[in-house]
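Usage example:
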Amino acid sequence: MLQAYWYITKMKLLTNLTYRFEVFTAVATNLILTLASVFLWQTAYKGGSGAVETLTLQDVTTYTILSITLSTIFVCGVQDTIYYKIREGQIVTDFYRPIPLLACYLADDIGDMLSSLMNKALPLIMFASIFFGIPWPASFQSFLLFLPSCLLSYAILWLLSALVGLIAFWVMELGNMGMVKDSIVRVLSGSIVPLWFFPDSVQTVSKFLPFQYTYQTPLGIYIGNTNAGDALTAMSVQAAWIVILFLFLAAGWARTKKKTLIQGG
Amino acid sequence: MVSSIKHYVSVASCFARLAVQRQLEYPLFLFSWLLMIPIQYFSGIWMLKIIVDRFQPLNGWDFPQLTFLYGLGLISHGIFVVFFINTWSIDHMVINGGFDRLLLRPMNVFFQLIASYVNFIGLIDCIPGIIIFIYGCEIAGFEWSLVNIGKLILVLIGGILIRAAMFTGLGAIAFWTKRNGSMVSFALTMLERATMYPLSMYPYFLQALFTFVIPIGFISFYPAAEFLGTDNGGLELPLSFALWTPVAGLVCFLLASVIFRYGMKNYESAGS
Amino acid sequence: MEAVIEVKDLVKEYIIVKKESGLRGSLKSLLFPKKTKFNGVNGISFSIAPGEIVGYIGPNGAGKSTTIKMLTGILHPTAGSIKVCGISPQADRKAVVRKLGVVFGQRTQLYWDLRLGESFELLRRIYQIDKAAYEENLAVLTEVLKLHDFMNTPVRQLSLGQRMRGDIAAAMLHSPSVLFLDEPTIGLDADAKHAIRNFIKEINRTRKVTVILTTHDLDDVELLCSRIIVVNNGKIVEDGPIDSIIHKLTPHRMLVVELQEPCDDLSTPNATVIKQEGLKIWYQFEKDLVSAPELIAALSQKLPIQDISVKEPNVEDAIREVYKTTATV
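Running the assembly step on the lines above writes:
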């Protein structure tokens, strides 16, 4: 069984590696984004401004580079996959396949993730290091805590995407709501500006939403803004969100499947 | 000449009518765009406000001025997206043989490419653009005199031509590489960062690049600095940017259409 | 008579990037792509007179579409010259395409979400057809292609056959003098094929439209074309009237004999038994060596014959023969 998923993952990895040109431009796009964002921070911190902040310019620079790098790795094709499958009416035939669909989509995305790690994330980190120095973690310990936190982040993002993909099943005519979700995540995850800079009221609300646990949590651990104890707490919040989202997805998926098979599409 | 212009206008208006009709076939589809685009841009300007409030004006650009710049850049992007969105699909058309049909018709191919799709949905980009710009004008103290309005129109036209030229030139690369380069998102990112944020934040090398090689700075940054009297990083030109932006736009546009025309000779209609 | 289409030594060269398999291969072609040149069309010459219906046929990848695309000005040839109605499509594309109608069977030029009439109106403006002439022409096309029923239906709801008729009408609106049809009957049912073939014959007869047809459906060729040009591997391998090509390529005839009772010795000089099913026997003979009556006479003396029939070879046999003998070296 696992072999089948690994095969999907590997095929995705291989096909992605053959597209040379797309990879170059993707790296260039992300590099531009990184440069522009870091220059913006440098301007904001210019002339000793921000000296009172808990985050130094170096912290924010590292945060920004890593945030954009993570965004290239966290591939959630699942929302588009489900959307298009529903639109083309293909989902019905897929339901009759012997292996769980969602697991296939996940395997597919993991393949994308592995290839992105090699041909998008690594080059981006390398080029960014040339401009701004290597974005080292605060300590070896924070790096070790950063890795599992990233995996949890990805799980949250992926589950969110799958859930949003399911919306298409009920209101297909409204277009791809994944885009809407993405634009919300970009802001509220702290991927562009860390939420610590936001007004207090926003920060309070945000604590009760899943978004900040996708980018800000692992990145905060990496730059040492979150200490080891808080990091473990944050990761358990991440885990809690995963459980909640998973339950939602399982319920939604079961209902979708039932409705689809009854209607026959 | 007159009859030729009449011919092109008659075809363009028919194309436009059909394009709008096609998009209105699925009106609800607009809903996700109607949510996504305002969220994206309003949050963008909100991020700027958070940074400026917390730190300091960006190289002398305070929040009202940043809002003016952001709005101006976004409006010019929005209008561009309405009229020139087909320049984004040049590479796809090269790879899928999409120019075949255009080549079989007795009209200019580039004209057909542009005219064949008036992107009604692009108006959605204009909504946050106009709101942010008008708000920016209000708080930055922009004077709505006839001269200023005239200048604004000239700047917008020039800026749109620069954008069109950029995407045409980038898309035309596919005539030689035969690859889908996904250059569009690259160029979009670059344009957004260089037209909606002060160019003077970037190192001199990039400022020079975006002024003299790829004149993105003319789209909104230099004109906005002139309108508001803010620091533009040291570029001094005689007369007004209301003159230089359209000039830069025309030069780029002509250059891009020459590249396109050369590329067309290399076109290999793919597929069967 | 002056030729409508005149092609001399046409060559089109392509560059192919070879992709290698496996992870290693992917990485390798990522960094160092391998490029090779090859001639998709390799020295083709022919000329077509006004009013001809020419079948341009060949296996997949033979260079058919590439040739058509050069004739219509879509592609620029690497070498050689093309004249359509006396003009080179590469020198003056706009002048040439005004005289051409082109239908790609697998790619519609109609707007998917709109009614047929709306695509037509666009074409009327593009080709600057004056209103009166347009109405008249459209009336004729609507009549012959029976477009009434679906003129106001969105194209996406049309059947393939209806869509193809719509596409052909769209290509004929500006009254072209040459019509290129690329696989016009692909995937259509018998009725739709029949309607389209009739239309082609009709416009050829009444409007003297020259038709160039590429197809894999040899019934199209047999029913429509006065002449066929067969290409393979970028070269013309046969060019001439259908009958003479069949004659030349398939010297064999088949005689099918049904016996009253089984016989042991079936042999006869000048013919060989190639198949036997119960009392039915298939003889193959070469028509240059022996005529059918002679063979029948010889056999009837020897065998108790119940029934007898002679089978003529058809285009399909001839074409298969050509493809076989000119297959890639």
